[in-house]
Amino acid sequence: MKRCHACKVRPAKTMTIKEASVKFSEQQGFTLLEILIALAIFAIMSMMAYAGLAAILDARASTVPRAQQLAELQTTLYLLNEDLNQVINRSIRDEFGTVEPAFSVGRGNEIVVFTRTVPSWSTNAGENSLLRVSYSLEQDVLYRQVWSLPDRTQQTEYRRRKLMTAKSVLLKQYNLSSQTWEPFTGGGGMPTALDISFNLDGLGTIHRSFLINQ
Fold first, then answer.
1. How far apart are alpha carbons 205 and 197 in whole angstroms?
2. What is the secondary structure of 72-131 as a DSSP string?
3. pLDDT value at residue 125
4. Residue 95: which of 36, 152, 150 has the closest Cα?
5. What's the pLDDT score for residue 155?
6. DSSP bridge partners of 19
7. What span, in angstroms and rounded, lies between the C-alpha atoms of 191 and 59?
8. Which domains does the chain have, with CATH numbers?
């Protein structure tokens, strides 16, 4: 039987290591132009992301202090409203034995000082039901100071709380006779109402009127 030469199986052509590496590099590699384009796109996207992040940080830097300032103002107005709603016409003796009126302008940096009652539901049995409260402005900072014993001695302790930063605080009292607002000087007994103006950095002048408990 004759063997067919056309049916002979020819051995597969082998590829040298050098030829294989060249072919692999041709299929998997990147050209220098492609790398430069990718770097340029990455740089542009990085600049856009940084600009957006910087805008967010700038907005936060301006928003957080303003929100804190508004929160401090709200707390101050709340405390003033609570204090002035509980005012009582009762004079006291200070640590030197000097008689002070129930409601007046304080000494030194004190803006206003007065005596107030404490609601019965917020006191325990045996505790004093009167407080002496003072608001003072010291180096552009508003403070609230409270004595639990109105008639005090030099050993009487007090509580002091920082409220907020203010350039100035002005008080006016309402005159029933002329029906006008006039500067509060501390004389003339208990005022009917007070108008308090706060000069705040960035917010301007804030007015708030309070009725005085009679």
1. 6
2. HHHHHHHHHHHHHHTB----EE-TTS-EE-SEE--STTEEEEEEEE--GGGS-TTS-SEE
3. 46
4. 152
5. 83
6. none
7. 44
8. 69-211 (3.10.610.10)
Q: Which of 170, 167, 195, 169 is nearest to 181 (CA)?
A: 195
Q: Measured between alpha carbons, how far is 214 from 202 in angstroms, rounded to an integer? A: 36
pLDDT of residue 40: 84
Distance between CA 190 and CA 103 in Å, rounded? 6
Taking alpha carbons only, the member of 78, 143, 76, 75 closest to residue 113 is 143
Q: Residue 94 contacts by C-beta under 8 Å, 6 or more apart in sequence?
A: 100, 152
| Distance from C-alpha of 135 to C-alpha of 169, rounded to nearest angstrom | 10
Chain centre to alpha carbon of residue 179: 37
Identify which of 188, 161, 184, 162 has the alpha carbon closest to the alpha carbon of residue 171. 184
- Averages of pLDDT over each 10 residues, the chain, 214 residues: 52 56 57 81 83 74 81 94 92 88 88 88 63 94 93 87 94 90 83 93 90 80
- Cα 143 to its chain centre, rounded Å, is 16
Residue (of 27, 122, 143) closest to 80 by Cα position: 143
CB within 8 Å of 49: residues ≥ 6 apart: none
Contact between residue 130 and residue 116 where contact means Cβ atoms under 8 Å apart: yes
Q: What pLDDT sits at residue 81? A: 94
> Sign of dihedral through CA atoms 170, 71, 148, 127?
positive
